[in-house]
Design a protein that fits this description.
three-stranded antiparallel sheet; 3 strands; elongated
Amino acid sequence: MHLRSVTYLTYIGDELISVPDFPAWVCDVCGRCDYDEGALNQLSLILSPNAGRAPVRRRSLQRKSVSHEKNQQVGKAE
């Protein structure tokens, strides 16, 4: 296996995406092509729908604690 530059093709939805000069490991004997994992990770980050957007920070909702008095009153009513 030798590192070569190939054209990477993939579909995103119905659209064909072509990436020229993409790094891949290619076998000299059989021609098998394994795309470089690091390059695939970088490409997936670039093509993700949230690329270029600031991360959204969500506040966790705190549960209101039920007072002890209410629990005792409910227990008495039963």
